[in-house]
Structure formats: structure tokens, C-alpha cells
Amino acid sequence: MRRAVCPGSYDPATNGHLDIIERTAKLFDEVVVAVLVNPNKKGLFSIEERIEILREITSGLPNVRVDSWQGLLVDYCRQHDIAAITKGLRSVSDFDYELQMAQMNRELSGVETLLMSNNPAYGFLSSSLVKEVAAYGGNVKDLVPGVVFERLTAKFS
């Protein structure tokens, strides 16, 4: 079975994230959407909320499951027999960072990284930007899945 992981903080999940998850699901038998647990960062949504949201927005993808991890991603991959990491690229600066991470992950564990170009419609999109715009009352409805929009609206109302 070919397994891949789509790692991220997903705080919150955006349409760009969902696009990469859906495209990865077409390429692999099983995809794990893994939410990073970073005890040093306070997110807008709790880890449990992010997992719940991701399960809802990926419910139509039968080969996708949602989990969380803390520590090195390559250790998670080894523990779960995952051979590939997929990441989306929005810009050249994303590429520079992700290439270094891919090379390090391969050196540490042999896990391959697939860097996928983003859908141009989401090239500007980031979780941080979505949170900032939503916090100031901006309309992010077309940038995030419906459940994320509802949760953001509730958080900032």
C-alpha cells in the first residue's frame, strides 16, 4: 500500500490545503493529513478542533484519514509505514525552504518529499493571512471550506 502524509498546522485549513490533499488522494492508496502539535505555539483553533474540521472537510475522500503528530515528521512516517510527504508550493521562497526540509528528511530516513505546485487561484493564500483578514471582519468565505468559514465567523463575532 502506498501511503503519503500531508503535514501542516492547518490553523485554519484553507482551500489551498484542501486542493493539495485532494490531489494527493488521487496519487496514493492512503493519505494521512497530519496536524502538527507544537506546544510552544498557541493556535486560533485547538488541535482537537483542527482535527474535527479536517475530518469533516475530507469526509468525501475515502482514502484520507486525519491524525496529529509531535516531534520529527520522519519519525511519524517510520512509525506508520509512510514513504512520502506531500507539500504544496506557493512561491519560490516556499521552494527554498521545502527543498532543504525534503533533503534533510531524506537523509534522516529515506522518506521522499513530493513538492506540488499550487493551484494558481490559491497562490496568495495562507492560514495566517486568512486569520488576519477574518479578525478584521474581512470576507474569507471563498478562501476556506464552508465549515472553516463558519468556525472563523463564530471565533471572531
How would you describe the overall organization of this protein?
- Pfam families: CTP_transf_like.
- The chain has 157 residues and is α/β, with parallel strands linked by helices.
- The protein has one domain: 3-Layer(aba) Sandwich (Rossmann fold), CATH 3.40.50.620.
- The protein contains six helices and five strands.
- A five-stranded parallel sheet has the order 3-2-1-4-5, with helices on both faces.
- The protein is globular and about 45 Å long.
- The model has no long low-confidence stretch (mean pLDDT 95).
Keywords:
single chain, 157 residues, alpha/beta, 5 strands
Question: Largest beta sheet, briefly?
Answer: 5 strands, parallel
Apparent shape: globular
- Provide the CATH top-level class: Alpha Beta
Number of DSSP helical runs? 6
**Structural class estimated from helices and strands:** alpha/beta
Cα-to-Cα separation, first versus last residue: 45 Å
Question: Average pLDDT across residues?
Answer: 95
Strand order in space, largest sheet: 3-2-1-4-5
Rg, nearest Å: 15 Å
Q: Helical residue percent?
A: 40-55%
CATH topology: Rossmann fold
- Runs in which pLDDT lies below 50 for 5 or more consecutive residues are none
CATH superfamily: HUPs
Succession of helices and strands:
EHEHEHEHEHH
What is the total number of structural domains? Answer: 1
- Strands, count: 5
How large is the share of residues in beta strands?
Answer: 15-25%
- The CATH architecture would be 3-Layer(aba) Sandwich
Keywords: ATP-binding, Coenzyme A biosynthesis, Cytoplasm, Magnesium, Nucleotide-binding, Nucleotidyltransferase, Transferase
Subunit structure: Homohexamer.
Protein name: Phosphopantetheine adenylyltransferase
Binding site for ATP: 9-10, 17, 88-90, 98, 122-128
